[in-house]
Amino acid sequence: MEAKKPLSARALLSAKKKAVFRFILLQFLLIFLISLGIIYSAGGLYGYSFILGACASLVPSIYMAWRVFSYKGTRPAKDVIRSFYRGEAGKLVMTAMLLSLIFLLVKPLAADVFFAGFGIAILSHWLSPIVLKH
Q1: CA-wise closest residue to 102 among 118, 89, 86
Q2: What torsion, rounded to 10 degrees, do the Cα atoms 15, 67, 84, 117 define?
Q3: pLDDT (tens digit, 9 = 90+) per residue, 87-110?
Q4: Using the 8-state DSSP alphabet, how is residue 92 labeled?
Q5: In this predicted structure, what is the pLDDT of residue 75?
Q6: How many Å apart are CA 105 and CA 27, to the nearest integer?
């Protein structure tokens, strides 16, 4: 039986980056399919309200992933932690701004379906252990 060589730090980072962005793509596909079902069964208002709610969660997640994985190669642990803190702070600010802007600018909006989309996008993070297991 031949022992497998462990991945280099660069190869491991590249694999994790691909897995995270694959997970974000899966989230978008899930939201898109659910929104198509809502548009078909309940109408356009509910469909775009759902999509906007989901995007208010997913767009900041993309920013966070970009912020954490924007560097090439390996970095000292201090820099990694700093990028996580900056990414999470930016994600929080972006989420608040998107929620505010959507409620201010989009009329009409079905608030209950909007928050359902937001909640489902957040809950879809529970799928990440399955998808990110590489």
Answers
A1: 118
A2: -90
A3: 889 999 999 999 999 999 999 999
A4: H
A5: 66
A6: 25
Pull the structure tokens for residue 117: 């989309």
Q: Tell me the C-alpha distance between 78 and 69, whole Å.
A: 15
Greatest distance between any 2 Cα atoms in the chain:
64
The torsion angles phi and psi of 71, rounded to 5 degrees, stand at -85, 150
Contacts of 121 (CB under 8 A, 6+ apart): 27, 31, 53, 54, 55, 56, 57, 58
Cα separation values, 102 from 49, 88, 107, 112, 126, Å:
9, 21, 9, 14, 25
d(CA 134, CA 18): 10
CA angle 40, 44, 50 (to 5 degrees): 90
DSSP assignment letter at 3: P
Reading the block at residue 29, the tokens are 């596909």
The identity of residue 84, as a single letter, is F
- Residue type, position 19, single letter: A
